[in-house]
Amino acid sequence: MKILAINNTLEGKNFPEISTGVNLYFIWHYKNWLGHFSILKSFYSLLFPIRSFNYGPLLDIMMLDMRSYRGPNTENLQTSRSEETEFLGSQQIEWLKQQLLKSKATWKVIGSDMPVGLVVPDGDTAAENLANGDGVPLGKELEMAELLRFIKGKNIKNVVWLTADVHYAAAHYYDPNLAQFQDFKPFWEFVSGPLNAGTFGPNKLDNTFGPVAKYQSVKVEDKVVNFPPSQGLQFFGTVKIDGSTEVMTVKLINIEGKVVYEVDLLPE
């Protein structure tokens, strides 16, 4: 299941009109199988509808549903959009565009089920995630390319992605100069988890949108396959926005409470 825990530290009065700081604590995970059973998809969308939260002038959060509106898992190499290539779906994409457009907050945080640029296979040939390997956008990536182009075209600033799914922690910077598709503004994505499940990873990065791994909690040479929580490879993340400078500080933290990665993001 997806879990979003939010804690606010506010020193101003009359929130949300006046706020001097925001703390956001995020831990997300869900059962992958739920999205594969059509009889449960409607129930899932009722439990976890697409929704947004406003935290005053500093922060808007838009939470997505990457299970209820997606097409089937295929090789994900289609050259044009169709029902098979739906991931967020046209209705949800339009909702997200409007939420981003109307947001007056300094930071726009998108909470997504899955990372943008990590390959998550389904069997030998199918793709579970939108990422399908290096190259130009194909399949479900076509939808993401449209969204990222829209964000750039409308000059929507300070968009950050928070996500989970892959059972390890990571920080990714998406650089259009390194991407096969370059018509987007650079952005950060932070992956946290698992909270109390087996640890895997790291997954292969797909260069379509130019992700650079600034941090990964596990390494390829570690051969991490379903390590139990007793190994200590459990992670969560925190986000703090300074009320005076509007700087966003993101931390990835392990089960012992040690900060394993930290970065300050300056607003545009």
Automatic annotation (TrEMBL):
Matching InterPro entries: Metallo-depent_PP-like, PhoD-like_MPP, PhoD-like_sf, Phospholipid_Metab_Enz
Gene3D superfamilies: PhoD-like phosphatase
Coiled-coil intervals: none
Domain of life: Bacteria
PhoD-like phosphatase metallophosphatase domain: residues covered: 51-252
Membrane-crossing segments per the record: none
Protein name: PhoD-like phosphatase metallophosphatase domain-containing protein
Species of the source: Okeania hirsuta
